[in-house]
Amino acid sequence: MASSLGSAPLPHRSVANIRSPGPGSASGPSTPLRGIQSSFGSPSSLRADEDLLLIELGTRKLHIGFAGDPVPRGSVWFGPDQQRRVGDFRVWQPDHKDNWKQRAACGQWGQDHELWKSDVRGLDLGLVSDKIERAVREALTKYMLIDSRPRRMVCVLPSGLPIPMLSTTLNTLFGRFAPPTISLLSVPIALVVGAGVRSALVIDLGWSETVVTGIYEYREVHTSSSIRGGRMLTEQTHKFLAARLGQGQDSTSAGATEYLLSFEECNDIACRLVWCKPSSHSTTGTPDDGLATVDEQDETEAHTHHDLNPQIDIPLRSCEPPKSLSVPFDELTEPCENAFFDDSRYSRASFDDHELPVHILIYRALLQLPLDVRSLCMSRIIFTGGCANVLGLRKRIFDDVSHLIQERGWDHVMGKAADEVRKKSQTKTQGTQPAGNGGGSKSPRDDQSNIWHDAANSSPDADPIEEQLKKASSSRPTVKGEMRAIESLGSWSGASLITQLKAPAIATIDRDIWQQQGAAGASRATEVDPKGQRQSLGPGGLIRGAASSWTLGVWGVA
Amino acid sequence: MAPLTPYTYIQCPCSDESSPDADDDDRTFDPRAARSNYSLYGLEYLLYCEDCHQIRCPRCVAEEIVTYYCPSCLFEVPSSNIKSEGNRCTRSCFQCPICIGPLAVNSLEAQPDQTHLAAPDTPSASHGGPYILTCSYCNWSSTETGIKFDKPNSIYSQLAKLYNGGEHRLTPKEHKERRKEALQASAVSGDPLPDQTLDVETHFAALKAFYQSQLADANASTTGLSSLEGLGFASPASLSRIMSIYTGGSLHDKRAKSRIGTMREALTSDEGLQLASLDESSSISALRLHHASTIPPTTYQHQTPHLGALPPHTGGARFPSHLRPIPCLLRTKRSKRCPLCRHIISKPEAKVSTTRFRIRLVAGSYVPSISILPLNIPQPSPDGALAPLVPAQFLLKFLNPIFEPVRVTLATPSKTPGRFGAKVTVLCPEFEIDANTDVWEDALKDGVAGKDVAAGARVRRGTVGEDGQQQPEVGKIWERGRNWVSIVVEVVPASLRLDLLAATGKFAGGEGVDAGPLREDEDVLEIPMFVRVEWDADTGGDDVGSGVGKDQKEAKEKRELAYWCVLGLGRVRQ
């Protein structure tokens, strides 16, 4: 293993590691699988492009490293200092004053911290290309310490990336860094691999939006998103602070929002101080008496902390004149509340599809998943993204979603009329059959909720194929049907695992073909013969003939 | 507002190729467009390829690495270590996580100065005890995070074995042994293994081991051809692929496909499954108490996610107690080549301690440099800002660095692009600059040939006005020296008043007038200028000899260099 493993070398060469470490995996006497030991490899280790560059592009930052490393070697954040001219040192002059107001004047509040926005209309793709180019070049020079010989690259990209931006990214990388091939991996898949599971519900609390992706057997089966993300949190933080500065933002005239504080300062406060209060459902108690004990503890804790609700002094430097705000600690949950939940003030129907509160978004995503997929996904919830670092937010979302499930079950129909119908039917079906939770939960509290399902209540027919499959699968029980959150290594590290384990990327694009054909040359993912596709992924492109049909994977034209 | 020093930036011609509308000849370069910040460079950042006769910017050079070294201890790191040990100094060089100043290793024990005098031959006694890293700039010390070291050297490896708070971090080997013991214990007692929280590296290692064992299991169940299933990046797979071509087996038989289903998911923490503990109430109460000491996100961005640092999902990574000293990033010395002709255009000395270059073809010795001087600024305000709508004159001084006389042609748009277009007039857009000959040679020539261009003597070409002041004249250069020429540029800055802008926009009938507030740096008067330099060069002769063989006219070759540059003249008063 030539890859760096940070500080201490891991025992990757030890026999114990190669063989199964777990007690259950019964591996017979077999030739142990060889990892990618590039330094011990055969003649091809002489190749210059032996080491793969793994680049993850996000809206605000870029991670870069060698495939096989546990963590990226460096991260480059997109920001205004990256957009200055080379040799422009005016910022370092002692009398320099950051005139953020002029930058914010043309609707650019915070946009110079972003690589792209998901709205491609009016987006200067050339500028995106320049930003990527400079960031990758900086990363290669500063963190990777490699020369500019062409190396193969793996790109980890969000699966909802529009084609123009994907095309720009590939054009930039192919044009400026000339890698022979670029493989594409999607962020949710990488996260799932990084968590060690095969199916999961990935909740990416990202910068520009929150994306909920249902993944079943390493395939993205459902994606939905809401604009409630880090950007909104920062804007809400600004709103919160501006209101306390005495000059409430005129929210009605959204076109001419005047900013009182700089983006940097608001972002700073959002990252440092904003937290999320525990779910109200877990403290007030729901009609259902099946509450988890953890939630009860929260209630007592919340009570004890109410006594000490200190005033927090927030020094604000970017306003004229600099001020110091004194805010009670508990009020600092307000931006988070408004940014991610915000369902207290409005009825549920008042939200557009793109601005659903996060817990409703997740509930809907689960609801739209097929039954068996849902049961697997709900017990493998992965929180990721920058906003997952907001203290208490993950638990709040988790509790709210659990509450929604308890309250409504898996029923698409909601509203007062539906509730009445449900009540009636409950009296009808009372005592006949214990209601099965859609996820097949065995927990008693779900049984007590007595939710009426007609399909779920019927006992499933015995399926001979299913039974065979069950026999084939390991004897270990898989956790399903209960809400459970798991941790992932992160998308970069997951992608590093995928690449190191030689799993095929979603799409691998050859430089020559891309430069001839561009994004228009890609076939649909379904049209591509998987055999041919796999072959074209071969090491060093041994079989180039199969490259006649290539695909952009999930990013391609649907 | 800080007074603006006039500046010049040059756009590297390489960025022109990438622009989609390169066929449009009339296109003027807009220095204020967001993209131009990425293609403009100060002259000192540019290199020059002598063979392609082209400017090379940092974007259009191919780089090769000469040396890797630590900027702190100047230790030269062999290139093989970069791959295996990472991009940071693995000795004792650390940066302060707060202020990124260098950290020093200090002994915790106070040095008894009395005993130092009394017993100078026992330094070990005075320097014993635990050691800490301290920042001499901001007084941060590693005791704040509970880290102390036993030895004063090889801090990096010691730090890798410590969590913040001083808890011992198991090395992977120890981790393995610990698990083995626990496994045996659980086999005896029958209890399942306890789940544990893993740090990032251990988690990664556990997952990797798990996946590898799963793949190995699957391999055992198939014919062994299934390694082809994977995308083979490394050689073993490619070898087996070649083998399979000759054996003629179908690459994807059904068995290979069916084995996908046999890979199960990780079930224990030993296999890499980590259940999330979503309860962050302790962190919240910590925030409640220590809110003033949270670290800004910019500080956290500097943190390297390794060396046993807490995984990113522990949530509380916002307190100073979570900070870890940052090992110094290694640096490189790079030689640069022209990407087209592969000639070396910059090559530093391999030794770390020298800053010399063996080869360095900086653009400044090939491209005329432009310096800007104010000539006639009416109504100057105390901060040096230009008055709007009043003509101001600037001197542009072109200095010829090469040993040939050059002809310079300038072109500017008559009105600068942008919302506030200033009127620009270059009084003398075509002129010739004499060669950068030796000073003494010129003096000798002066005596012999009696040229009117005397060495070092300034020749003014303007007419003298009534008040005794020299008046600039159209078509004439202002002043000429040995290898320099200065010309006059007259600008009429536009008024920065937004109401005027809106009014004129309405008057002109334009609808899309952007009457938004003033943007950043929009008050800076910047002139895009297209510079074309022509000269006759000796074919094949090197530039050093060309000055001597100046009067031999044979084998001359016409060369030209053309590029956009941006002149920043000053701020316009608002």
Describe the structure.
Chain B: Keywords: Acetylation, Coiled coil, Cytoplasm, Cytoskeleton, Isopeptide bond, Phosphoprotein, Ubl conjugation. Chain B: It holds the Pfam family Dynactin_p62. Chain B: This is Dynactin subunit 4. Chain B: Belongs to the dynactin subunit 4 family. The complex is a heterodimer of chains A (558) and B (574). With 558 residues, chain A is of the alpha/beta class. Helices cover 35% and strands 13% of the residues of chain A. Chain A starts with 14 loop residues before the first helix and ends in a 22-residue tail after the last helix. Chain B is α+β, with helices and mostly antiparallel strands. Chain B has three domains: 7-45 and 368-571, no CATH class; 88-109 and 127-191 and 294-329, no CATH class; 196-274, no CATH class. Helices cover 22% and strands 23% of the residues of chain B. Chain B has helices at residues 14-18, 79-85, 113-118, 123-126, 155-160, 172-189, 200-221, 235-247, 254-258, 281-290, 297-302, 439-449, 498-507, 543-546; strands spanning 7-11, 40-41, 47-49, 54-56, 62-69, 76-77, 94-95, 103-107, 131-135, 274-275, 326-327, 331-337, 344-348, 357-360, 369-376, 392-399, 406-411, 423-426, 430-433, 459-460, 463-464, 470-471, 479-480, 484-492, 524-538, 556-571. In chain B, the strands form seven sheets. A six-stranded antiparallel β-sheet of chain B has the order 2-1-26-25-17-19, with no helix packed on it. Chain B is elongated and about 100 Å long. At the A-B interface, α1, β3, α2, α3 and α5 of A face β2, β5, α2, α5 and α6 of B.
